[in-house]
Amino acid sequence: MFRFLFPICLAAFLARPTSGSANLLRQLNQATADVVERVMPSVVVVRTEATRTRVYHPFFFGRGFEVPERLAGQGSGVIIDEAGYVLTSAHVLRGAQEIEVILADETRFPAEVVGSDRHTDLAVLRILELGDQPLRAIEEGDSDTLRVGEFAIAIGSPFSLSSSVTLGIVSQIGRSLGLFALEDFIQTDAAINPGNSGGPLVDVEGRLIGINAVIQTAGSRDSAGVGFAIPGNRAMLVARQLIEQGEVERPWLGILPRVLDRAAANRLLGVDGGIVVAEVFRDTPAYRSGLYQGDVILSVGDARIRSMLDLQRAIFSKAIGEPIELTVWRNQRELQVEVVTERMPDERMFRR
Fold this sequence. Notes:
Layout: H1 2-15, H2 18-39, E1 43-56, E2 65-81, E3 85-89, E4 98-102, E5 108-117, E6 122-127, E7 151-156, E8 164-175, E9 185-188, E10 200-202, E11 208-216, E12 226-231, H3 232-245, E13 251-252, E14 255-260, H4 262-268, E15 274-280, H5 285-289, E16 296-300, E17 303-304, H6 308-316, E18 323-330, E19 333-340, E20 342-343, H7 347-351
Antiparallel strand pairs: 1-2, 1-4, 2-3, 3-6, 4-5, 5-6, 7-8, 7-10, 8-9, 9-12, 10-11, 11-12, 13-20, 14-15, 15-16, 16-17, 16-18, 18-19
């Protein structure tokens, strides 16, 4: 936090009178504290318990015997609906037999899993036995408008330290780490540690822009780590489907896509990048629409396609059964192909 505030403070002192600089610092300090105070009631601790049986075998003689072990886990979550729905990371709940949600005021409630999506590592819980307990749902932001360099605040429970806050910036957007089938991470240098998973990443207005997901440390003890969050818009889209239907449905074309190198595309085809149709699966929307192996997808609707992430964003923003107009490069010319999407049977076919 201080490594970002120091340059701001230094610039303020150089550019303004001392009294004005102090006033600027007070305003920044007050604004940050106000945001955290407003968001904190929406952040929860998610605790899990499970029992497993370990078999012990005496070294010299005798039969083996079983000993039950109690396993406890902890992560973070954020209230997205005052009816008691909590968004968190799916891996926080893995193997859980009992789930407890702890609010900011330390009241505890049992919870159940509404649904999870392994392809984005997101899950939704529903708090049980709420009674008259009031809840505050977090305000949604717009992660599609994020810019690199904007401030970001991460809140969660790292190392069992509940209601911990870290401040950083959005370091990059659209990152892919190869961990899940569908990735579109926000990279941030706001400290994200074990236990932060499932907690919110918010903007300076306290609006949800991401769900804290993973860290990378480059294997060094001295590494401060790099944090990644699932964009808030994608996370909320998944959450709504899990709440409404218990699962996530996504549209697909029915192709095996490959990224076309922009330099090679310019040299060989005279186009500025795109996605090559490496294979068209039989009895799929692409097959029925006349899309061919070797076609280069240049755009989906008005969205220019230069990467796999571009294609994912463009396709998954459409409804199942919605017609999509593709601009493709075939035989040295552009042409339009309309594809009516269907429900994707398995995300692995989209990226294998």
